[in-house]
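Structure tokens please, single chain.
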Amino acid sequence: MGCFTSIRLGRAVGRAKTALMRLERGPGSVGLTVSDDGHGFLDGAPPEHQGTLNRRRSGKYASNDRRRPNPAVDVEMAIPLVTRILIADDHSLVRSGLRRVLDKQPDLSVVAEASDGAEAVEKALAEDVDLAILDVSMPRMTGIQAAAELSKRKPEIRLLMLSMYDSEQYLFEALRAGASGYVLKSGADEDIVNAARATMRGESFLYPSAVNTLVRDYVEREVDEPDILTPRELEVLKLIAEAYTSKEIAEQLVISVKTVERHRQNILDKLGLRDRVELTRYAIRRGLIQA
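Here you go.
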């Protein structure tokens, strides 16, 4: 939530009369704090619960949450002065093109590159990275799988997906994995800078037809279908669909061949499928591999 939205909520919902915006410059970042004298969402709330929404960047605290450490604060946000970026794409020309565009900006700097999802996770965890730009379809581990892994292991990293496909499936999988935005390669030269900055501000960036897709899905959706496969089963499924043998999968995932076969049978049973061909079709629909 941005500071101006917070101020509007303070006036409309919290009946605040004044709002204070405080900008503080720290080592390598700028901190923004917004507070007000409203009463929050609870009529007659005591002073310690005043303020509009007090949603921190993690969404951990609410205005009526007694655990919050500073009740007067509405929004706290730290944006690095220079965003350190990792680019992951299996095509070197794409990486060099994005680097050229991003490095021209004074507030953006590409500090690492990766050619597949597994390398992206490794470098993002090992290096000081603020934003990871991940291609959706990459070998070894997809960008979507990498995004999910980073969301779990280093949630402070912002995630932006890049794809040549205007695909609803890829879009939804990317958002579920924790990505804040989705950029098409066809418009990356124009969109990538704005997308990177929006993501670092905690905002979403979607190409126009993706917004329409989300609106339509919200209207038509009744119940979300749960993901019945575990993360490990998804890894095995991707490699099976890429024509790896059980022995090769076992070597890559550092598990036994027997364990691979057990995962394969569990996947077939859960999905109600019969063979590798049907598994491959499912993997394509899920965006694990390209058709």
